[in-house]
């Protein structure tokens, strides 16, 4: 007799550098808690970010821009991601890096505009008349084929729908029967049918059938409340970029030439300004009628010093347009040359006229105690066991080099501990891997000491 263990079906996700961040970690008065929601320290930056979140929620922030400025590894990207977490998944958040604009296929300004439109959502509310319920019967009624010959055609279909309040029997058009077949609707499924368009949507299996099997591939939904025939408000969230793409795709015929034309086309095509203006007109019409509302999201541009003078001037115009998201820049540069110019030195590599428009939030280097807390957080996120002395040794390494380097030593130290048969990482494992790898500072020191041995 074979006994098998039941494996967990929970999805395992790859752990990234910011997997542990769940929000800004503020209390109800907007005051930052020293260590909360995955963020440690940076109290003033987090408090400022909390005010920004409130402004975004009250829709008072659109078309403004923020700049996170601070040395590398001080949590600029982390706070931007925390802002996105605070806003929830309904507010669009579009992260990009400054160097993304240098594409071989499309213009720099087009890449920027595309990301701008990705960061603006449109919430469309429609009131639809629907029939909703659990399918109790599904019988197609056949008649003789009117065109003669063999076979029968479906003249109509009888469907029984049941909700918590009552049942109804409907007689449906044969075209709806085809949609029912496409959705693979069976007796016991919860569906809704739109009265005006005849569109069928299968929501899942009724949860009365939920305990039939040990292994289930179905999604179970509760029996709908209310009547079978009801008015339902359907809310759809789309971004303006989705609308641009849907309208930019040429609808070719089904002949060979148009198929070939679509295959030969490069993958990315530019969306014209004219098309965007037309879409904006339609969007504004919907907003005026009260069908839709704009949800300005967040566009996060990391390494903003990588942008050049052309893209900065374009950003000016984009920020002033009526439909604009909140733009958050991040940079770790001090005074440097503006890219695309010969000799203009500016703070953070951003032109002064654009700097004038920005609210600047400063992030400060972490102290040793904060480094220890962050490393402890990372160790628990990555599922690595480390003792207190090991953590102290690792935070010492981080204080002398960088936080990123110390966080990267966690996994090699865990492997070294496993090789020795130890259950936890201790200081000697940290020291062992620290001697094997170099951090940026010690690498630079070696390069200066032995500069004669390297090529110029």
UniProtKB/TrEMBL annotation:
<comment type="function">
    <text>Proposed core component of the chromatin remodeling Ino80 complex which is involved in transcriptional regulation, DNA replication and probably DNA repair.</text>
</comment>
<keyword id="KW-0233">DNA recombination</keyword>
<protein>
    <recommendedName>
        <fullName>RuvB-like helicase</fullName>
        <ecNumber>3.6.4.12</ecNumber>
    </recommendedName>
</protein>
<dbReference type="InterPro" id="IPR010339">
    <property type="entry name" value="TIP49_P-loop"/>
</dbReference>
<dbReference type="GO" id="GO:0005634">
    <property type="term" value="C:nucleus"/>
</dbReference>
<keyword id="KW-0132">Cell division</keyword>
<keyword id="KW-0234">DNA repair</keyword>
<feature type="domain" description="AAA+ ATPase">
    <location>
        <begin position="62"/>
        <end position="365"/>
    </location>
</feature>
<keyword id="KW-0547">Nucleotide-binding</keyword>
<keyword id="KW-0067">ATP-binding</keyword>
<dbReference type="GO" id="GO:0003712">
    <property type="term" value="F:transcription coregulator activity"/>
</dbReference>
<dbReference type="GO" id="GO:0000123">
    <property type="term" value="C:histone acetyltransferase complex"/>
</dbReference>
<dbReference type="GO" id="GO:0016787">
    <property type="term" value="F:hydrolase activity"/>
</dbReference>
<dbReference type="GO" id="GO:0006310">
    <property type="term" value="P:DNA recombination"/>
</dbReference>
<dbReference type="InterPro" id="IPR027417">
    <property type="entry name" value="P-loop_NTPase"/>
</dbReference>
<dbReference type="InterPro" id="IPR042487">
    <property type="entry name" value="RuvBL1/2_DNA/RNA_bd_dom"/>
</dbReference>
<dbReference type="GO" id="GO:0009968">
    <property type="term" value="P:negative regulation of signal transduction"/>
</dbReference>
<dbReference type="GO" id="GO:0140861">
    <property type="term" value="P:DNA repair-dependent chromatin remodeling"/>
</dbReference>
<dbReference type="GO" id="GO:0045893">
    <property type="term" value="P:positive regulation of DNA-templated transcription"/>
</dbReference>
<dbReference type="GO" id="GO:0051301">
    <property type="term" value="P:cell division"/>
</dbReference>
<dbReference type="InterPro" id="IPR027238">
    <property type="entry name" value="RuvB-like"/>
</dbReference>
<dbReference type="InterPro" id="IPR003593">
    <property type="entry name" value="AAA+_ATPase"/>
</dbReference>
<dbReference type="GO" id="GO:0042127">
    <property type="term" value="P:regulation of cell population proliferation"/>
</dbReference>
<keyword id="KW-0805">Transcription regulation</keyword>
<dbReference type="InterPro" id="IPR041048">
    <property type="entry name" value="RuvB-like_C"/>
</dbReference>
<keyword id="KW-0347">Helicase</keyword>
<dbReference type="GO" id="GO:0060828">
    <property type="term" value="P:regulation of canonical Wnt signaling pathway"/>
</dbReference>
<dbReference type="Pfam" id="PF17856">
    <property type="entry name" value="TIP49_C"/>
</dbReference>
<dbReference type="GO" id="GO:0003678">
    <property type="term" value="F:DNA helicase activity"/>
</dbReference>
<dbReference type="GO" id="GO:0010628">
    <property type="term" value="P:positive regulation of gene expression"/>
</dbReference>
<dbReference type="Pfam" id="PF06068">
    <property type="entry name" value="TIP49"/>
</dbReference>
<keyword id="KW-0539">Nucleus</keyword>
<comment type="similarity">
    <text>Belongs to the RuvB family.</text>
</comment>
<dbReference type="GO" id="GO:0005524">
    <property type="term" value="F:ATP binding"/>
</dbReference>
<keyword id="KW-0227">DNA damage</keyword>
<keyword id="KW-0804">Transcription</keyword>
<dbReference type="GO" id="GO:0006281">
    <property type="term" value="P:DNA repair"/>
</dbReference>
<keyword id="KW-0156">Chromatin regulator</keyword>
<keyword id="KW-0131">Cell cycle</keyword>
<keyword id="KW-0378">Hydrolase</keyword>
């Amino acid at each position: 007799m074979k006994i098998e263990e039941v494996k967990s079906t929970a999805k395992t996700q790859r752990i990234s550098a910011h997997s542990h961040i769940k929000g800004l970690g503020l209390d109800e008065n907007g005051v930052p808690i020293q260590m909360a929601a995955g963020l440690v320290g940076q109290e003033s930056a987090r408090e400022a970010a909390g005010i920004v979140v409130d402004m975004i929620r009250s829709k008072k922030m659109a078309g403004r821009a923020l700049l996170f400025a601070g040395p590398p590894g001080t949590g600029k990207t982390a706070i931007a991601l925390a802002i996105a977490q605070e806003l929830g998944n309904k507010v669009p958040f579009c992260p990009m890096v400054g160097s993304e604009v240098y594409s071989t296929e499309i213009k720099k300004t087009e890449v920027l505009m595309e990301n701008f439109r990705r960061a603006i959502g449109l919430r469309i509310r429609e009131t639809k008349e629907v029939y909703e319920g659990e399918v109790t019967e599904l019988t197609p009624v056949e008649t003789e084929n009117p065109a003669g010959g063999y076979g029968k055609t479906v003249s109509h279909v009888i469907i029984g729908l049941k909700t918590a309040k009552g049942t109804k029997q409907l007689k449906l058009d044969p075209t709806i029967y085809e949609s029912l077949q496409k959705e693979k609707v069976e007796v016991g499924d919860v569906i809704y049918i739109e009265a005006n368009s005849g569109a069928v949507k299968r929501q899942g299996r009724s949860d009365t059938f939920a305990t039939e099997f040990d292994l289930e591939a179905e999604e179970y939904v509760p029996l709908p409340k209310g009547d079978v025939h009801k008015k339902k408000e359907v809310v759809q969230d789309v971004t303006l970029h989705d609308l641009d793409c849907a309208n930019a795709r040429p609808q070719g015929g089904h002949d060979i030439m148009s198929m070939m034309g679509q295959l030969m086309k490069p993958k990315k095509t530019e969306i014209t300004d004219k098309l965007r203006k037309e879409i904006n007109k339609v969007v504004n019409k919907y907003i005026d009628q009260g069908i839709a509302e704009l949800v300005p999201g967040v566009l996060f541009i990391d390494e903003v010093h990588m942008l050049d003078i052309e893209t900065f001037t374009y950003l000016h115009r984009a920020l002033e347009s009526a439909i604009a998201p909140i733009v958050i820049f991040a940079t770790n540069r001090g005074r440097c040359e503006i890219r695309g110019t010969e000799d203009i030195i500016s703070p953070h590599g951003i032109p002064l006229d654009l700097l004038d428009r920005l609210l600047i939030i400063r992030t400060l280097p972490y102290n040793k105690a904060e480094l220890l807390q962050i490393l402890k957080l990372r160790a628990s996120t990555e599922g690595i066991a480390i003792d207190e002395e090991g953590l102290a040794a690792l935070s010492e390494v981080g204080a002398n080099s960088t936080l990123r380097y110390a966080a990267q030593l966690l996994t090699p130290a865990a492997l070294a501990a496993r090789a020795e048969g130890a259950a936890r990482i201790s200081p000697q494992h940290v020291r062992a891997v620290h001697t094997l790898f170099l951090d940026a500072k010690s690498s630079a020191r070696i390069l200066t000491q032995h500069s004669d041995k390297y090529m110029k």
